[in-house]
Write a structure and sequence with these properties.
Four copies of one chain form a homotetramer.
Chain A (H helix, E strand, L loop, with lengths): L3 H18 L8 H18 L6 H8 L3 H7 L3 H17 L12 H16 L2 H14 L3 H28 L8 H12 L4 H5 L9 H19 L2 H12 L1
Helix pairs in contact in A: 2-3, 2-5, 5-8, 6-11, 7-8, 8-9, 9-11
Chain B binds a DNA duplex (21 and 21 nucleotides) through helix 3 and helix 4.
Chain lengths: 238, 238, 238, 238
DNA sequence: GATGAATGAGGGTTCATTCAT
DNA sequence: TATGAATGAACCCTCATTCAT
């Protein structure tokens, strides 16, 4: 319900679909599926798994109870599908800045800020809390979330650091560990405070910059080579 | 709760009472209270706040429903009492090693390992997941947990670092932030993997030592003074 | 509720709807609603508000618990709806005889008997007991019952007596009070005996006639004019 | 209870017992019994049978749960005992004014006012509501209440009227019915309004006097003899 | 295929009654 | 004997799921 524009759009889409193939098979219409997921997002993220009711989702998604059960076997499966979606949305494009290697320190700062801002943003914290809370009941949920989200990002950081090392800018014994250290340094004091609701608001951009710049400094003091120092010196004097 | 001295005193008092008059007052028997909390722990930690049912707890604790409601006004209060207990247990003595300032690097390593091992131990991860999951419904819960747990520990780290700085061993601009950085470095790659159930087992002692030693090295490279380096050089040559 | 014409209209509307679209909307099926009310009647009237359990009503009505809660928000609302229904049924048509002014004494006797028989009938006594018993918990309930039931009847009696006075048949100083006196005279010894369950059966028609005729006689001796006496004399001699 | 003579006798017996054996037998201490009943009165009358909890009564009476169950088999029996007590208190002395036959009209007015004030007083209405409400569950309760309360009073009114008839002041065919009529006239419009909580306050003394005087007038116009009229005429002229 | 009214097990909580102390 | 802590059945109500329409 609610958004009439969306409704119209949806109707048009349906029309096209039905003209093309007659009608999508049961549980196969991707538009309807997205519609359900969208409703589920609003309710699950807001209330958590248990407190969310299928009625709420029904209302929010604008589809009937029966339809939801055609697309998803039960509440749990709907939830899992939503989390997959969320994960995709959250981590999409997060690592783009690492693709274009440029100035090392500034690249790290830029990336660190994107990462830190994303992970500690209000809606992502809510999603993570929901996943963590549900991990007790649905063990694979958190695991898969981490594997396909943070873990993949971590892999990209590893690749980036390895390249920097090859360029002689960093000297790292355990790159895997260093990548984790870098991430944690960028989130110092923020992630746990947010996830435990000690902070009720996301950190400001300034705060994030302060934490990230300090983290990058620590990281480079520990792992930066003389070559890096020289390059930075040179850059500064120009 | 909270004040362990008072608790001990109260327990003694109760014991005397029970010896004197045979039976403790309603909601005052510490043995029964512990029994209920223990049952609640098993159920809440296993299922999370919402999914846990008072019937489950009743069964697990081996007391009747009515009795639970004599000791705790409702499900939420029982849960909060449990979390307080858990918090007390978890963070008790965690920071003792910081009290006796000795060799800086080794003290940091020792402390880092205690911290890291504790925070990532199976039962503590379960407890933290439960707290995080319930934070949606009971916002103060996570906040209070963090404030009286990790935050207090953080404060002790700050004091410790400040002392080290006064002794000329460290040079730190933002001690608060450095303390967070230190903690995060000790947990690099561990905490998030555990909390999201990507790791299904607590890290081994060896793994923890590797992470912590590396973290301390990074930290000291970033914040250690020449004086510290000289001292360490001297210590090594003896 | 309230407006019986509207109710009938609504029911017709619902009927049409159900013929047209096959199934009534949630909480809108008048047949199901009536079924629930009927079950509620049996249980509430039999046991009183508090002692009646929603499970009993579920069983008696032959619908599921959930369905009841679709039609009525809670136990209290169901009870109030039932009482409204009962009130409507009880007082419907009770005062019709007053509309056609004819022979004064006989009209009063006829009306008195209808009133007395109704108020002391087994099912109406049960309903009144239920209302009175629940008035402690739901004060407006009894108040509204009286206001829309007995009070409205009383008002009609007042109008009737006033007309009789205008015709010179009665001479009454306080018509409001006289109307109450008339009602009470018609119920002399009956209402309280029934309501307190001292009588376990409703009075017989003969008994009621005896009480009412005597009551009317007392009333007319007190308030009848010479003109009334003359008219009655005349009527008797023909 | 009820019979005060019997009570006194019993108390003496108890006293002797306690002197003899040191302590009253279980469930035999009349002071404790009274204490329990007093607590029960406060709670039952205030909340009604179902809503009253044994814990409330325990607190109000200042005795332990177990003790109550020594004196009364269960909640219902305690309630019945209380109602018996209440009945005794309510109707005690209510009919004294009928014992001293004096001026007929004034005696009737005086008695009518005592009766009307008593029956419609806040606490007596509460008690009656409680009895009526519980009559569904405990059928004999209301019956016995009426029989030993209002019924006995009614018998006294019958005797009084009969005496007045013998003195030639009244001429009544059905004295039983006339007695009921008199009572109802004195309560015209009051009792039902109070019992249904349409009136939330007891009527004022002035209101009662108005109703009763009018009721007595109606009654005497209907049943008074010429002799009564003459006597009243004579009295007035002096 | 889509709908949403109906289901009924199970939720948290209360409280009359019992019985060890 | 008197106590009141403990019991557990029963309370009202919710909601994931089903299935007649």
């Amino acid at each position: 319900m609610g958004n009439p524009a969306a409704d119209t759009e949806k109707e048009e889409c349906e029309l096209l679909e039905s003209l093309r193939r007659g009608r999508p098979a049961a549980g196969q219409d991707p538009v309807k599926r997205a519609q359900i997921i969208e409703g589920a997002r609003r309710v699950f993220i807001d209330k958590g798994f248990e407190a969310a009711s299928m009625n709420d989702i029904t209302r929010e998604a604008g589809v009937s109870k029966g339809t939801i059960y055609v697309y998803f076997a039960n509440k749990e499966e709907l939830f899992e599908a939503l989390i997959e979606e969320e994960r995709g949305t959250i981590f999409k494009n997060m690592y783009d800045v690492l693709d274009h290697f440029d100035h090392l320190r500034e690249t790290l700062v830029k990336f660190g800020m994107v990462l830190s801002a994303k992970i500690t943003s209000a809606k992502v914290i809510l999603a993570q809390r929901t996943v963590i809370g549900a991990s007790e009941r649905i063990p694979e949920l958190g695991s898969r979330f981490y594997e396909r989200g943070p873990k993949r990002g971590h892999d990209k950081v590893v690749i980036f650091l390895r390249e920097a090392a090859e360029r002689g800018l960093l000297e790292i014994e355990d790159v895997e560990l260093a990548a984790y250290q870098f991430t944690e340094l960028c989130l110092s004091g923020l992630f746990r405070q947010c996830i435990f609701a000690y902070r009720t608001k996301a950190p400001t951009q300034a705060e994030i910059e302060h934490v990230v710049r300090s983290g990058v400094t620590v990281f480079l003091k520990a792992y930066g080579t003389d070559k890096l120092a020289a390059e930075e010196q040179a850059a500064q004097s120009t």
